[in-house]
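Homework help thread (please don't just give me the answer)

Our assignment gives two proteins as sequence + structure token strings and asks us to describe the second one. The first is just a warm-up. Here they are:
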Amino acid sequence: MPLEIYRRHNPAKCNSRDTVRCKDKRRPCPIWVRGSTNNGRYIRQPLKTRDWIKADDLRRELEATGELPKIPIEDTRTTITTWQEKFIQNMKAENLCEDTIRKYNLVFKQIIAFANDRGIRFIAELDLPSIQDFRKT
């Protein structure tokens, strides 16, 4: 059985059964691949795309090499200093006065010092107990 790409529909979100077209044009259902590769291995897995043309290219590459290309994953976590820079840029874009921006910079310095003491580097690591500890200081 050669490799075949198809849309995997979620009945709760899409009531279409057409494997090429999906009724939800804004966000179609995800595309999967199933079948046997040249070395006889059967696969059924998502292609992590919703674009039919890109999925067909991935299918061809999978048939040729026997495995999907590895897509490098970037570290998308935001550091506290990056968060501070973006927050201050946003405040400046809103034309807030310099005194307000200076106060927020002071709070960010305190947060960064607190986080460095506890080994916290990313904003996602600041959970409720650590924020409560920060407020106690």
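The one we have to describe:
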Amino acid sequence: MPLRVALFVEGSSTRPARGLPPLEVIWRECLAQALSLRKLDLIVPINKKHLVAMDPRQPRMSGGGEALDQLMMRVMKRESFDAAVVAWDLVPAWNPQDTFCRWDETVDLYRFLADSRSLPEAWKAQAARRHAELRARPTPGQRSGPPPLEPGMVLPVCMEPMFEALLIKDESAVRRALGIKRTPKGWPGRGWADPKERHPDTQVLGPAIRSLFGVRPKPAVLRKIHGDMITHKNEWGELLLRQMLADERAQAAILDHPIAVRLKELLSRAR
């Protein structure tokens, strides 16, 4: 019997009047199909604070601050799953000026899961074994292969700097996806395909979407999504990703991005 896999991923839980939530479309209908990934049985939205709340060194956050392990256990009681993928943005919107390290955060994730007071013992044991393996490496890049996909295993995908990095590698593809032929006033001239851009959502895609509202006649895409990247971030992400994956000239830039490559490595149907 195949493993049931849950994806805990950064994003909001917005639900449209009809159809699937944008977050589910992004990961299950778009990326999973394009990358030929194994089935994702559950899609659970999280934010970076779920990870921070597991760290006993951090002050308790307002509103209770449910930790990731607590959320995982709550979901597990409602709908069981055998393994989990945790995909989070390296640079969180709530603290964009701080410095972050993908390796440190991945090691910490396993350490906190191993010390959990909420998860079943089998899950904690898997996390402890994985933490010990990572700590024993002479350098982060020295490994025998990807972590195993087996019961109780948590597979990490630290998206650097964040998910929207997938969408800014090809400016012309974004223009085609939005139906833009002339450059609107306010369209960003920098940041596209720049690996040093730490805020592709607010510094590149945000201004690009806002510039559409000054175009006359009104672009057809604004009849589908009425808000900007602040109010409808998942919806814009879904539209751009879906359009670019269907664009032969743009698809390779998406599938070759490190975030997509990491997902395929962890969840290939061949595993």
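TA reply:
I won't write it for you, but here's a hint about the kind of observation we're looking for: The radius of gyration is 19 Å.
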